[in-house]
């Protein structure tokens, strides 16, 4: 478990530092970037939020609040509190047209910055839990690497960056957005900002 937690945070940090991000959309307080490497597509959503970074961190690291702003989350319950900083959740998401509803078993690792210039981190990846085997009513999907980095911009504002490395399991949700207007990603980002503020 210690290794999983470490690699969860390390993978997100590595993804965030990769060179070669292309900006695909820029609005007043939301920017959407993509990164392609072989068959792996990653995207980054950068949001300017008028709350202190520690407030954004405490709200975004509690995934049971996620349904309030992310309509892709149908249900989200804590399966196991591994430690103060790690929790395992079971998430279900609404069915897309022509697709079965999906579910995920995810490890969420939260880290406070060790040094002032470092971001707050909320890292997410799929894990396997014997107690929650795949069920016939859901298509069990996998998250390779996702999460938030929250950078302070001073005492009352911060930049929230959401990262997601896309696998075929999540593709139906994103394909339409990235090729088309990226409207759903945008709408979710605006809902997230509204929720945090």
From TrEMBL:
<dbReference type="GO" id="GO:0008289">
    <property type="term" value="F:lipid binding"/>
</dbReference>
<dbReference type="InterPro" id="IPR051213">
    <property type="entry name" value="START_lipid_transfer"/>
</dbReference>
<dbReference type="GO" id="GO:0005737">
    <property type="term" value="C:cytoplasm"/>
</dbReference>
<protein>
    <submittedName>
        <fullName>ACO12 thioesterase</fullName>
    </submittedName>
</protein>
<feature type="domain" description="START">
    <location>
        <begin position="16"/>
        <end position="166"/>
    </location>
</feature>
<dbReference type="InterPro" id="IPR002913">
    <property type="entry name" value="START_lipid-bd_dom"/>
</dbReference>
<dbReference type="InterPro" id="IPR023393">
    <property type="entry name" value="START-like_dom_sf"/>
</dbReference>
<dbReference type="Pfam" id="PF01852">
    <property type="entry name" value="START"/>
</dbReference>
């Amino acid at each position: 478990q210690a290794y999983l937690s470490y690699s969860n945070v390390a993978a997100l940090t590595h993804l965030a530092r990769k060179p070669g991000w292309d900006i695909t959309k820029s609005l007043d307080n939301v920017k959407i970037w993509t990164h392609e490497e072989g068959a792996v597509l990653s995207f980054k959503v950068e949001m300017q939020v008028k709350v202190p970074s520690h407030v954004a961190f405490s709200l975004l690291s509690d995934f049971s609040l996620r349904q309030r702003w992310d309509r892709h989350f149908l249900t989200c319950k804590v399966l196991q509190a591994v430690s103060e900083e790690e929790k395992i959740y079971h998430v279900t998401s609404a069915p897309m047209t022509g697709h079965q509803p999906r579910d995920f078993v995810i490890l969420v690792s939260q880290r406070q910055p060790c040094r002032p210039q470092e971001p707050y981190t909320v890292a997410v990846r799929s894990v396997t839990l014997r107690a929650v085997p795949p069920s016939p009513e859901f298509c069990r999907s996998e998250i390779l690497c996702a999460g938030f980095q929250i950078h302070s911009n001073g005492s009352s504002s911060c930049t929230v960056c959401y990262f997601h490395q896309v696998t075929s399991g999540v593709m139906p949700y994103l394909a339409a957005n990235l090729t088309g207007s990226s409207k759903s990603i945008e709408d979710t980002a605006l809902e997230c900002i509204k929720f945090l503020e």
